[in-house]
Amino acid sequence: MNKQFSDNFKWGVATSAYQIEGAIHEDGRSESIWDRFASIPGNIKDGSSGAVACDHYHRWEQDLDLVASLDLNAYRFSIAWPRIIPTGRGAVNEKGLDFYDRLVDSLLQRGIEPCATLYHWDLPQALQDDGGWANRATVEAFVAYTDAVTRRLGDRVKFWITINEPWVVAVIGNLWGQHAPGLHDPSVAAQVGHHLLVAHGQAVPVIRANSPGAEVGITLNFTPAYPASDQLTDRLAAAQVDLFTNQWFLDPVFGRGYSDGLWHSFTANPPQIQPGDMETIAVPTDFLGVNFYSRSVVRHVEDSQPQFVQIPGATYTDTDWEVYPNALYDLLLRLHRDYGAQKMYITENGAAFSDQPDANGYINDEQRRAYLENHLAACNAAIAQGVPLAGYYLWSLLDNFEWGEGYAKRFGITYVDYATQKRTLKESGKWYGEFVRANLPVKV
Ligand code: IFM
């Protein structure tokens, strides 16, 4: 292929705090909603939690060496709010900040650019006890937390993501109850979604003030919806799913407000929106973060909700997500052409497969390698069409705690033996390093 990736393209891997850090009782960290959710039997499929996870809190130097060994120039991680402001609002815990301070300095020493996400789902439980994201006061608490973090790290971190996947927080956490805080309440989900967006909008100017010259944006998850056939009914069903899954958060961030019919599709109670909120949410940012894993294929069912269908002969990952890289290409073009996205990063892309070491200790994860190659080809093709894609963060550096699925789903390019915490780079990881090296500018 004719390579389109620019010389300053960001090549990275991504992780999040609760999924890898462990050390949940150390250095003043308080309980998060995920600690509480995981402690309730039945919530996590294998009965596990993030209490130890990849023990990254103690092994972070080794993990950064791994990133450096692949010659990546970027690393995306998230900051655990319960380490920084354990009670959610109020006193700042300097020891919590110290951890990320060391992490950032060590990244920079290795020539790796830090990309910090401020909220990747681990809300302090104290705030949930007060209503969580459904309570408008949590927006104010998030802005204060953002201020504390960016004051401390903003001189060195120049790439900030406010919120990761607000749709997942609103829907999977508060409507379907499969994620923390485990609620099944449509009106709460709608309000949570709105407050997450307001929190994003209010945080952006605070980050800009504390981190001059930084790039700031939000990361949304996308599962493009395709009709199961050309029939009008299927096309309308796909459009309905797209509205709920993709446009809910995309439209307001791009200043289009919430679409007609959005609330009606799942709740009788639209969220309370204060004057000025929609302008706050549409604050200009520097990029859109795009998380992409798969698509959905949708069929209309008379007098019922649309049905999701599987394609005979298609490849599915261990999470039952279809491998369909063309959807990434289509999505990037749509975001650029229909929404005018000026700069985008793939902030997550990857696949879970049930890898195991062979007799020689190799993990030959050919399916993941092929997944990566084909999705990078989709990125390349999109750039060739004029899409302003500026970086790619593979999910994930390590196998880790996959939320409600526990440790059974392995997304890493590094195999983690949870009994010993030994890390082994999989073949896909080696391949990714080689791919990146082949695309980096030649150093003279
Ligand atoms: O592990 C998650 C991540 O935390 C958010 N995006 C999707 C990943 C895979 O499910």
Molecular structure report:
The chain has 444 residues and is α/β, with parallel strands linked by helices. It has one domain: Alpha-Beta Barrel (TIM Barrel). The chain is built from 14 helices and 13 strands. The protein has helices spanning 17-20, 33-38, 56-69, 81-84, 94-109, 125-128, 137-153, 166-174, 186-210, 232-253, 277-281, 326-337, 366-384, 427-439; strands at 10-14, 74-78, 113-119, 159-164, 215-222, 225-227, 287-292, 296-299, 307-308, 344-348, 389-395, 414-417, 422-425. The strands form three sheets. An eight-stranded parallel beta barrel has the order 1-2-3-4-5-7-10-11, surrounded by six helices. It has a three-stranded mixed β-sheet with strand order 6-8-9, with helices on one face. Helix 13 (366-384) links the parallel strand 10 and strand 11 (389-395). Helix 3 runs parallel beside helix 5 (94-109) and helix 8 packs antiparallel against helix 9. The two termini are 25 Å apart. 51% of the residues are buried. 5-hydroxymethyl-3,4-dihydroxypiperidine binds next to loops.
